[in-house]
Amino acid sequence: KASYEAGIVANMMGAMAQGICEKYMKHLVSEYYKPDNSIQQKDFENILRTHSLNRLMKFLKENMNLEFSKSTQTYMRMIDGFYFSTRYPGDDSIEIDRDDVEMCNEAVKMCRKEIMEFEKLQNIIAEVLNIEPDEITMETTFVEDLGADSLDIFQIIMGIEEEFDIEIPTEVAEQIVSVSDAIEQIKNALN
Description:
By secondary structure, the protein is mainly alpha-helical. 66% of the residues lie in helices and 0% in strands. The chain has ten helices and no strands. It has helices at 2-5, 11-32, 38-47, 53-64, 70-79, 82-87, 98-129, 150-164, 170-173, 179-190. It is globular, with a radius of gyration of 19 Å.
């Protein structure tokens, strides 16, 4: 931060931003993705070796039903590749400028915010239902998978409203049956 404030801009700043977003997404994969067979296990191992933010976002969407907002996806796509430009400079490398560093900073903030929303939601659900957070994935349904009753779901909705300082209308709350539904409503209310 001090270098940036002093007017120093370097390609490493872009690579670091990409690395931070990469680590956030790999954290979700390593903590919450549970491979069911050898093919999924191989995919799991491969995705943890990639440096591509696009591949990580695609994996999260296709395998964990976790999709970043369109704006977060756009920012992360813009900074995807800074790692490679820094690590392997050449004719196709780019020189990062102050605007690029600002974009990188925004991408990291947005990625972190959305991942923290998921983990906050997990903690709310775990507390209400007295279960471990790692039992909760994006695909988890409240009634079928977790055995929640209507009072549990009401407490989860109340916890969401309090934690995120939002209001979820009753007719919308009645449509929330899974963690991904709840995340979608949180995103809608915050945007």
